[in-house]
Recover the amino acids of this structure.
């Protein structure tokens, strides 16, 4: 599918979005109607002040109602082929990631990294 309009996904200050595309949520999951995946490719810069390995599920989209959607790079046919680095990032290091977010159609949200997300 074509890239989603940039207005759908905005980035926190430590993230630069390269592309966003949408994929229908065709999983056999209850409540899949009216949902889609945003597949976001971006560059993340570690500005946390310590070395760590970013966890994909800690990348979140937070919509205007403050609902958070956790990132994933596996577990759905929409995410097949996504591979992300598992290298530690020192402060100031940056790396490219591709992460999927299962969201209601036409969600407007901010992409961020939350080290405290459980």
């Amino acid at each position: 599918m074509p890239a989603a309009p940039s207005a759908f996904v905005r980035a926190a200050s430590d993230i630069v979005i390269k592309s966003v595309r949408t994929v229908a949520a065709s999983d056999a999951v209850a409540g899949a109607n009216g949902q889609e995946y945003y597949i976001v490719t971006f560059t993340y810069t570690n500005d946390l002040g310590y070395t760590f390995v970013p966890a994909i599920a800690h990348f979140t989209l937070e919509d205007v109602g403050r609902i958070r959607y956790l990132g994933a790079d596996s577990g759905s046919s929409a995410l097949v082929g996504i591979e992300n680095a598992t290298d530690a990032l020192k402060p100031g290091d940056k790396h490219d990631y591709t992460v999927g977010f299962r969201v209601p159609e036409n969600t407007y949200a901010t992409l961020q990294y939350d080290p405290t997300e459980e």
Notes: The mean pLDDT is 88. The chain has no helices and seven strands. The two ends are 31 Å apart (CA to CA).
